[in-house]
Design brief:
Number of helices: 13
Number of strands: 12
Strand content: 15-25%
Mean pLDDT: 91
Shape: globular
Order of helices and strands: HHEEEHHHHHHEHHEEEHHEEEEEH
Structural class: alpha+beta
Low-confidence stretches: 7-38
């Protein structure tokens, strides 16, 4: 993701000098600010938004749905087919696999526990999970896991799923969290923790284990009791080893190298435990977004952490660009509008959940691209349509 697009290309297995944005004022004042519309603000261009999701050739996709809001102006649109067998259209309460949007839920719970003084963000993870990691890894702090500055090395000894055929061949593989953690502990850290930033799903596997240690609950149960039930998100869940989506849902498909299309909806998400297994709906994610940024889930001091980027000298490991991941979210500025949120992707599904901090402009996009990896044409069109008034 760079300053002109909300995008990230990654493999579907979930691997993959900033200023601190401070939450100011009460939740009520922030919500009011999100509802106010300047006199020259035209609201949502629904025609442009529908056009943005209706192009299912760039990238190749089966369906798309978008819920957007600009102040008090709300809109939902859909296109394509949720299921090629029945031909029905996607609905806003259809379940789908939300991928790494899981991390925003995990971060919210960790920050709740910090606000309750049950964990210290600057404490080493080894204090809470003794014996799990080598000594140099155990010194990584909770905060460095949250903002992806841990330096944890790449996975070793896992299947190669770089082709759609391989992805489907291994889709029923079962991993435990501890087995998954062991795949990153065979070599030295990539860099001294806190000095660089590299997005890694394993950071959130460790945070989910931390939640379990602190609460005595499975991490999914902790998310349910602290987030899902209080907000009434009845169609959001962490499926564990259950490979199926139950009830009305959107199917994901993969295009094979021979051009054929395969249904990839059913698979065991255990390799994405703690960081990419969430199942949700457009409506539920829209409600979660509202609660997160209005302060219903976190007190003001925790909101400051949620959107706190690393110091300016911390740069992305791959290209040296400014750090863009905070303690749970990521940020991008497009046409002068700064968004905070989370991307998610897994086989056959992509999800994008972003908002301005004051909730004035926000959206949830879910679509089902058929290539294993693809460019971000759709999200770029959506964001361009949402921010064109400001360009």
């Amino acid at each position: 993701m760079n300053s002109q697009s909300i995008s990230r290309r990654s493999v579907a297995r979930g691997s993959v000098a900033g200023a601190v944005l401070v939450a100011a004022g009460s939740a009520a004042s922030r919500a009011a600010a999100g509802s106010a519309r300047p006199q020259d603000d035209p609201g949502l261009d629904t025609g442009a938004l529908q056009a943005a999701i209706s192009d299912l050739s760039h990238p190749p996709a089966i369906s798309a749905q978008l819920r957007a809001a600009h102040g008090t102006d709300h809109w939902y649109g859909t296109t394509g087919q949720a299921d090629l067998t029945t031909g029905r259209a996607a609905r806003p309460d259809d379940k789908f696999r939300a991928g790494s949007v899981t991390k925003a839920f995990v971060a919210a719970v960790v920050l709740q526990l910090w606000a309750e003084r049950r964990v210290e963000l600057n404490a080493p993870i080894g204090r809470y999970l003794p014996g799990l990691l080598p000594s140099d890894f155990a010194r990584i702090t909770v905060a460095q896991l949250l903002n992806h500055t841990s330096g944890i090395p790449d996975h070793q000894g896992i299947p190669d799923t770089s082709t759609p055929e391989a992805a489907l061949r291994h889709r029923f593989d079962r991993w435990t969290p501890h087995e998954w953690v062991r795949t990153v502990t065979h070599g030295p850290l990539k860099f001294r923790p806190g000095t660089k930033q590299e997005y890694r799903g394993i950071n959130y596997v460790l945070l989910a284990l931390l939640i379990e240690k602190l609460t005595g609950l499975r991490y999914g149960e902790a998310i349910c009791s602290r987030v899902l039930r209080p907000l009434g998100l009845a169609r959001t869940l962490t499926p564990g080893d259950d490979p199926r989506l139950h009830g009305p849902h959107v199917h994901g498909y993969l295009r094979m190298t021979d051009g054929s299309l395969r249904d990839a909806t059913v698979y065991n998400p255990s390799s994405t435990w703690g960081e990419g297994e969430l199942v949700s709906t457009v409506d539920d994610l829209f409600s979660f977004q509202q609660a997160l940024f209005s302060g219903d889930l976190l007190p003001p001091r925790a909101m400051e952490k949620l959107c706190a980027l690393p110091p300016a000298e911390v740069r992305m490991l791959k290209d040296g660009s400014p750090a863009r991941y905070s303690m749970g979210l990521q940020t991008a500025t497009v046409n002068g509008v700064t968004f905070w949120g989370k991307t998610g992707e897994t086989y056959g599904y992509r999800t994008r959940v972003f908002s301005t901090f004051d909730l004035r402009l926000r959206f949830v996009l879910s679509y089902t691209p058929t290539p294993l990896t693809t460019d971000e044409d759709m999200i770029n069109r959506v964001v361009a349509a949402l921010t064109s008034y400001n360009s």
